[in-house]
Amino acid sequence: MTDLQKEFIDILDEYGYDIFSVQMIIDTKRLSVNKIHQAIRTLSRSGLIVKLERGKYIRSSFMDSFVIGNFLAPDGGIAYWSALNYHGLTEQFVNVVFVQTAKRKTEELNVNGLRYKIIKVNNRKVTGYRTVGYGNHQYKITDLEKTVVDCFDMPHLAGWYQEIIKAFNRADLNQNRLIKYCKAINNKSVIKRLAFLAEFLEKPKMEKFIDFAQKSINKDYSVFEIEHSRKGKINKRWKLIMNMDEDEILEIANS
């Protein structure tokens, strides 16, 4: 290892940087910009650091996928199927880390054989995160209620209805936070589906949410399952076309 490489690694050790940007190293004021780029080039070639994307790197031994995912989109956080797993609402595991953001385009990246799916959403949806970890190993992830609302908003990012109905039934939800995030998402069809399930599955302490949902829905009918046809039993209370059989919903919820 050259003196320059050693000096660079010493900086990472001193500041506790397992994941870092070029700007973070510049901000230490320990090396010139030219020397920083020179060190990064040689350390990358030797495999001691790995490039995430332009200007962002990790040590080759660093494997915390949630920290990496949030570092790629620091305005947002870990969400959808990844958050379902974190909250223990699904046994299914996929080799993808889902990250929510408002500041970069939807895209996929591959780091050390793991896919990172960046999901661009409206800025109002970038809310409801809790911070996990410490120091350079921190990341944000959607809390329980935001995770459920997000997954009903974009079910294709969470294993579809087989997973999200079961997750909703299992989750011990705070109805005030559920209302808050439904307002942020601003998807009336999602509100209808959640309210129907809350009543049908007899979720406890949902009275305030049910009242909110009743005041929020319009006269237009929505399908319950967005991938199925528009044929099915009409639920007038929630303005839903029940294109999924209630026995099937119950079976999924209790699976």
Short description:
The protein has two domains: 57 residues, Arc Repressor Mutant, subunit A (Orthogonal Bundle), CATH 1.10.10; 188 residues, no CATH class.
Topology overview:
Blueprint: H1 3-15, E1 19-21, H2 22-28, H3 33-45, E2 49-53, E3 56-59, H4 65-72, E4 77-78, H5 80-86, E5 96-101, E6 107-111, E7 114-120, E8 129-132, E9 139-142, H6 144-153, H7 160-170, H8 175-185, H9 188-200, H10 207-216, E10 222-223, E11 233-235, E12 240-242, H11 246-253
Helix pairs in contact: 5-6, 6-8, 8-10, 9-10
Describe the structure.
By secondary structure, the protein is an alpha+beta fold. It has 2 domains: 3-59, Arc Repressor Mutant, subunit A, CATH 1.10.10; 66-253, no CATH class. The protein contains 11 helices and 12 strands. Strands 4-5-7-6 form a 4-stranded mixed beta sheet. A hairpin with a 6-residue loop joins strand 8 and strand 9. The longest helix has 13 residues, at 3-15.
Helix-strand pattern, N to C?
HEHHEEHEHEEEEEHHHHHEEEH
Gap from first CA to last CA? 55 Å
What overall geometry do the principal axes of the alpha carbons give? elongated
Task: Show unreliable segments.
Answer: none
Rg over alpha carbons = 22 Å
Salient structural properties:
single chain, about 260 residues, Arc Repressor Mutant, subunit A, four-stranded mixed β-sheet, three-stranded antiparallel β-sheet, 12 strands
